[in-house]
Amino acid sequence: EALEIEEVRATLEAMLARRAASRATPADLRELRLLVVEMRDRVEKKDSIGYSELNAPFHQRIWAAADHRTASRLVGGLKSQSIRFQYQTILRPGRTQRSLREHEAIFNGLKAHDPDAAEVAMREHLAEVLDTLTWALAGKRRAPQWLPGELAWPPTLGLSARPAGQCTGHPKESHASPRGMTPSTSGGQASKAGRE
Q1: Using alpha carbons only, how large is the chain's radius of gyration in Å?
Q2: Ramachandran category for residue 31: left, alpha or beta (phi over 0 → left; psi -120 to 50 → alpha)
């Protein structure tokens, strides 16, 4: 579903960028330029989280400049559904630097009042976002999943059986002594447990 959301978002945002290129005011361009300057600063400081936080205001300013309430409302709803994936995408090596170049290209198209350039730059940016999201979701599927209930034993070896006398992780279970030995009540000797 996340990939489908991004595909629809890409279509709408490309249209909004195209409209914004012919409608952007000097105030819109000034605000977008300041955002790009701040993005560049955060990339130089290797502040990926801070960079990512500037993404929403950049795109929202374009939506406002496009002056298309229906498309802006739809893309805003789609973005809110996919926000949980945004921070996964910045984990991809080199993604923040590439994203900055993509945002600069979008801004340059808007600044030149070139609808074709702004639309193409937005499409290329969101194609990269889609590719990165695919990468992030593939990594998430490969990650080990911990389910509630009894823990696997041992968790890293993938063995199907647990050694006798070992703890399952349940808080009510008593822990056995090392090597399956249980304390004897007579003479301090230990007797083997679980041999049968």
Answers
A1: 27
A2: alpha
- The two tokens of residue 112 are 């030149």
pTM, to two decimals: 0.69
Q: Which residue has the tokens 């003479």?
A: 187
Q: 69-89 vs 55-66: helix axis angle to the nearest 10? A: 170
Which among 109, 133, 137, 138 is positioned nearest to 13, based on CA atoms? Answer: 109
- Between these two residues, 180 and 112, which has the higher pLDDT value? 112
Which stretches of the chain are DSSP H helices? 2-23, 26-44, 48-53, 55-66, 69-89, 95-111, 115-142
**Who's near 147: CB < 8 A, 6+ residues apart?**
none
Distance, CA of 18 to CA of 20 (rounded, Å): 6
Note the pLDDT tens digit of each residue in 19-75: 999 999 999 999 999 999 999 999 999 999 899 899 999 999 999 999 999 999 999
Query: Residue type at 170?
Result: H
Q: What is the pLDDT of residue 21?
A: 98
